[in-house]
Design goal:
two-stranded antiparallel sheet, 3-stranded mixed sheet, 10 helices, 5 strands, binds zinc ion, single chain, 269 residues, mainly alpha
């Protein structure tokens, strides 16, 4: 019992030290138990493994559009954060942009910054502004450390369930990999990220809007894209649709953030 109390006290103090951080742009407080470098190395390892089986698209025009939008958005974001003295928000993130040959209507971003679009989503994204909506949303997940937060929540729920010394081990890098793969389903034959919570999805929508605004993309295309998505009768549920509120709610939420997105955009022009 004493060991258990000691362990919980130790964990609580660890959590308190690491918990003090807030999400970029929204300021929401959250708890992160993993360092950026731990997450980056797990992310890089899983991504490299995934890309050994994924087929890179040979559609040069579409791949070039993904690359251009990705570079423009991340360059503008880096410049913006530098101007605010907040470059540390990008620690552990190295952006890359890939188009993969796969019919699924999907796109995702690994916590380490590796953005992957599937060919199947491209018919819905026929302009750079529409690509920027999805790119902004995906990049927002990485910037907001949603992956780290999800892993931290899972680690803590294991603590509550088990209350044994094993849980401490779970935070070591060896077991961190198991937790990471459980959280992201990477390495599975489908190679996609498990759905984020609705809260994370809504937050990625909001931050994504600010990010595309910073890069000078047309933010009015965000609701246009979600309308298109809802009309698309795909059987597959993509990462960014899976746990979402209805499209009507989503579009209403986006409208709420348009003014702030325009204000943020005006700061960089
Ligand atoms: Zn998402």
């Amino acid at each position: 019992m004493r060991r258990t109390i000691g362990f919980l006290a130790c964990l609580a103090s660890v959590a308190l030290v690491i918990a003090c951080s807030s999400v970029a742009f929204t300021g929401r407080n959250r708890m992160l138990l993993y360092s950026d470098s731990e997450i980056a190395s797990l992310s890089n390892e899983s991504y490299n493994e995934m890309m050994t089986t994924a087929k890179v698209s040979d559609n040069k025009a579409q791949a070039a559009m993904i690359q251009e939008v990705g570079e423009r958005i991340t360059t503008a974001l880096t410049k913006y954060l530098a101007s605010k003295g907040e470059l540390s928000l990008l620690e552990g993130i190295n952006w890359s942009f890939r188009l993969v040959s796969d019919d699924q209507v999907n796109a995702f971003c690994m916590p380490g910054g590796q953005v992957v679009f599937y060919e199947g989503i491209m018919p819905l994204l026929d302009t750079p502004d529409l690509v920027a909506v999805v790119m902004g949303h995906e990049i927002a997940h990485a910037l907001a450390r949603h992956g780290n937060e999800r892993m931290s929540q899972q680690a803590l729920s294991s603590v509550v369930g088990a209350v044994t010394g094993q849980v401490v081990e779970q935070k070591t890098s060896q077991n961190g990999r198991i937790l990471f793969e459980a959280a992201f389903a990477v390495g599975s034959e489908y190679c996609y990220l498990l759905p984020y919570s609705r809260k994370h999805e809504s937050e990625a929508d909001e931050i994504g809007l600010y990010i595309m605004a910073i890069a000078g993309y047309d933010i009015t295309q965000a609701p246009v894209l979600w309308k298109r998505m809802s009309q698309n009768n795909s059987q597959y549920v993509p990462e960014f649709m899976s746990t979402h509120p209805s499209d009507a709610t989503r579009i209403k939420n986006l409208e709420k953030h348009m003014d702030r997105a325009r204000k943020i955009a005006s700061e960089v022009q």
